[in-house]
């Protein structure tokens, strides 16, 4: 039951991040239209929102005794939500490229969640924000690199 709870929180986190992203997109209509054509400020903003939401939920879910399972499951729930939304939008044109893209999304969110989970675990043991800050920026950079690679792949 606890595993389902963590997956559920990953799902809720993804939907919360998506709602925040859509609300902010109203203020950047031109950038929203170009989001898959070039790197825009909105991409940086969306990545930061997703990673902050995950970090906040993981910080509340990870204990000083264990971080891997909750982080992995929250990341999985987040990834599955994003994959479902992306696949349902592109199901008619699904092919091997879409499968690789969705697998990349899954791996990305699980890895960044585990990084955030380890930082939360470290913080709860050592009461230092140094590693969580570094971990957040590492997760942010990984996510941005992935998104930039996908945008370049789509446009080439």
Please give a structural write-up:
The protein starts with a helix and ends with a helix. It has helices at residues 2-25, 29-33, 41-61, 68-90, 96-126, 130-154. The longest helix has 31 residues, at 96-126. It has one domain (2-154). It has six helices and no strands.
Topology:
Layout: H1 2-25, H2 29-33, H3 41-61, H4 68-90, H5 96-126, H6 130-154
Helix pairs in contact: 1-3, 1-4, 3-4, 3-5, 3-6, 4-5, 5-6
Structure summary:
The protein is built from 6 helices and no strands. It is an all-alpha fold and 156 residues long. The longest helix is centred in the last third of the chain and has 31 residues, at 96-126.
**Strand portion, in percent?**
under 5%
Shape: globular
- End-to-end separation in angstroms reads 45 Å
Main pleated sheet = none
Count all strands and give the number.
Answer: 0
Instruction: State the low-pLDDT regions, or none.
Output: none
- Please, what is the average pLDDT? 85
| Element-by-element helix/strand order | HHHHHH
Tally of discrete structural domains = 1
Radius of gyration: 16 Å
Helical residue percent band: over 70%
- Look at the helices and sheets and give the structural class: mainly alpha
Q: Give the count of helical stretches.
A: 6
């Amino acid at each position: 039951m606890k595993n389902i709870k963590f997956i559920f929180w990953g799902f809720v986190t993804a939907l919360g991040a998506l709602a925040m992203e859509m609300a902010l997109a109203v203020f950047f209509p031109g950038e929203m239209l170009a989001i898959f054509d070039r790197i825009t400020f909105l991409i940086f903003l969306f990545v930061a929102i997703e990673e902050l939401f995950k970090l906040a939920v993981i910080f509340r879910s990870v204990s000083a005794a264990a971080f891997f399972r909750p982080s992995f499951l929250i990341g999985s729930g987040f990834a599955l939500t994003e994959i479902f939304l992306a696949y349902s939008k592109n199901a008619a044109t699904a092919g091997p490229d879409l499968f690789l893209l969705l697998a990349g999304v899954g791996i990305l969110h699980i890895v960044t969640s585990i990084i955030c989970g380890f930082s939360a675990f470290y913080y709860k043991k050592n009461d230092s924000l140094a590693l969580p800050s570094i971990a957040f920026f590492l997760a942010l950079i990984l996510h941005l690199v992935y998104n930039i690679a996908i945008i370049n792949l789509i446009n080439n």
